[in-house]
Amino acid sequence: MTLQEIVSQLRAERDWFDQALAALEGSAPRRGRPPKDSRGSEQHVMSAAARKRISAAMKARWAARKKRVSTTKTAKKPGKKAAGRRPKMSPAARKKLSKLIKARWAEKKKA
pTM higher than 0.70 for the full model? Predict the structure, then answer.
């Protein structure tokens, strides 16, 4: 080994030691995600009184909503009817419609 090779090896080791010391001391630039705060991300702690007040308000809202929903359910008309269905056609209307359709087909056949 020449003197130049020994010097370059020592310099490489010195650089490695400098990096290791910097990492241990915390002055080295970090890679990746930054560390979390000890407090978290600005936690907001709610007082017990505020929690109680909010809880009471929510319970009142839900009670009012349940009351409103139960009254609308009973107010609906009794009987089962599918949504979007047409009402049944009377026999007279059915006969009239049948006549019209037959006349249309007869005209189409002639043409």
Answer: no
